[in-house]
Amino acid sequence: MDLDALRHLNFSQLDDAIDDWDQMTRGLKTVADNAEKNLKGKADRANWTGYNAAVTREFVDKTSGEFSDAHTQADTVTKILKDTRGELGTYKTQLNTLIDSTTNMTVVDTGNGSFNVIPNPTTDPAGAKTNAASLRDQIEGILKKASESDTTAAKALRLIVDHAEYGFSDASYKDRDSAAAAIKAAEEAAKTLRKDPHDVTNTELSSLDSTLAKYKNDPLFAEQFAVDAGPKKIMTFYAGIADPYRMHYDPERGALAKKLQKNLGITLGTATLSDSANMRGWEKQMVSLGSGELGTDDANNPRGFAVMSNLMRFGDYDDQFLNDYGDKLYAFDKEHNVKGLSPWVDNWNQGDLNFWGKDDRGRDPMTGFLEALGHNPDASTQFFEQPDGSGAGVDKDSEINDHLKYLTKDRIWLSDATLDGNDKVVAGRDSLGHALEAATIGYPYDADAKAMQAGDHRTAATAGVMEQVAYLYGSKGGPDMLHAQPELADSLGKMGGAYIDDLDYNLSGVGESAMDGGTFPPKYPGRAHFTNEGAINFLSVLGQDENSHRAVTAAQHLYALSALDAYPPTTDANIGHAHDVLTTEAQARGILDNSRVQQAEATYKAGSEEANKSLGRSADWIKLGAGAVVGGGIAAIPLPGSTAAALVVAPLAADTVGEAVNTFIGHQVDKGVDAAEKDPTQQAQVTSSEFYKKGVNQLGSEYASYIEDSPKAKDIGNQQDWNEDINNAYYGTGSQENDYRGLAPHKD
């Protein structure tokens, strides 16, 4: 900054601009609040159907979000301008005070950021020279700080404005200092990545980890860092740090590399959310580097896909970037899908690049990519979207997405376990399940119960993916697919549980007619359609596996209880709906329980100790209700285990819950099963007849609870013989009709 420019700086235009921005920010705050409360609020409450439900609601949500982003961007710009104006005003005052208080010296601006300090004639030339040098240093210090304030503010403002090609950025900073600090930290971190990774000390790597951990969600930092480092250098650096040969001799470096994988992955994800020209170029280059080797001696000279897929396991990535990346990976992988000739997993490739999980060395890039989809629901829904739209049902193979068909039916999956891991587990298939959970349920697969209180995230698009999954696993080859892909069973159960209301709706008709939309109304626009036979077949497959049976049965029970709460016995109409809820649940439970019995008997020997133990474990699902978290019209049901991923999302019939649901989630468990497991070393054993008895008894308890305090409901139930209806629905559709309805169990 020129000396005279700061000395005579006129702030009038800047002050006017700040006033304008300040006024605009206040106005946009009002508009944003109105958009959220009125525009979006009314849209959320509207009972839209058809085109309005599928398109208009989404448009309103996006528009409301844009108003919010516009206010955020205006507020940030205003704060940076105000802060910079204050700093420059301070430096101007400091400079003028310093020069004006100086005697016996003249300060002259010579242009281009330079100036001279000329001592006046004096009897002490040496002293005057020393004083001039001191004054020069003080002036240079002020000018340097003023220049830094000016240039960093300009850089931050440009980054914020360029962050979104269309619309507005949601990057928020309280002042110029915080924005400038983020940019400076990014530039320093990028310098470390441009080094030879072998020359980076553990101290430097630890510092890099700390910086990334601090700023990984900061949009300006992430973009500046990613662009400065560049796609190829990021990948070669990580390959050099993660090289398993070096980890063997330096365990401390291994711990640092594990942190780097996560923090670097999250940072890059944040960077991809920018829509600037620089980041669009970065993303395009990263995708183009995927299929080629990186040309490094580290980690067996991996391909770009192998490195980037391990980094993207963590973070929130741009949907379009993930889909562009996935399309390229899919095409390359499919071309090389040859038995015995995997381009990823073989004895030669020892380039382990993943530090999270003993069953997943990270050599197969499809695994890391699918984990990324599992954390990015919108991207996953798009990657597996139903061809030619969604929500119309699936009844032939041509209506299955190519990505989904390849990954579930055609791809050769290999175990990628470490020596300490389980070589019978294929981590990639588990990650495929995670991706499909996100695509169908609309939440990251490992979202916690608190996050899920945001409510039902299903849409016509997520339903379109679910219809494909139900078709694939509910078709003739479904039992064999499930048996060959055991890692997907828990995910399929969660998906089935999340759509149990739509499955019940499809079960409620007579064949494909007269489905009961009155008792089972859609909870979201564009509900899933499975057909009556499709719902039966899919449930029959889910029932075959212990994990999927447990998840979908718990969701079915909780949904039915919420429906009984929603239809209290106060009117004839409600009582009629309750009858349909009970009989439809009985039908679903019959299908699930019969399939569980048949599979236990097919896998083991009918009546054997192992078969009975298997049924005992399946009867244990009732305990899942304890600890369920309800909110926003859904319930998060904890599965066995303590991780956030062990949750089933179950739809509820009403946004508020009543006595039936509260009883179930209030630690009321099946005492018979509970007592049988008092000795933890002894698994509960349940014969098939006992298993069916437990099932029908639970249905009977629901019915009894519903009519207990309602003489009218009891009278109607007796007159219409609800007992027989429930028994017939459970035993008839289940243990008898499934001999020719639904799909037979898998047999080795």
Q: What kind of oligomer do you see?
A: single chain
**Percentage of residues in helical conformation:** 55-70%
Beta percentage is under 5%
Structural class: mainly alpha
Q: Which shape, going by the Cα principal axes?
A: elongated
- Please give the count of helices: 31
Major beta sheet summary? 3 strands, antiparallel
Major beta sheet, strand line-up? 3-4-5
Point out poorly predicted stretches. Answer: 667-683
Q: How many distinct beta strands?
A: 5
Distance between the termini: 80 Å
Q: What is the CA-based Rg, rounded?
A: 32 Å
Mean pLDDT across all amino acids: 86
Give the helices and strands, then pairings.
Layout: H1 3-7, H2 12-45, H3 50-100, E1 105-111, E2 114-119, H4 125-162, H5 176-193, H6 202-215, H7 219-229, H8 231-242, H9 244-249, H10 251-272, H11 277-288, H12 304-311, H13 319-335, H14 365-375, H15 377-383, H16 402-410, H17 427-441, H18 449-452, H19 460-473, H20 478-484, H21 489-498, H22 500-507, H23 532-542, H24 546-566, H25 572-603, H26 609-619, E3 629-631, E4 634-638, E5 647-651, H27 659-665, H28 671-676, H29 688-707, H30 711-720, H31 722-736
Antiparallel strand pairs: 1-2, 3-4, 4-5
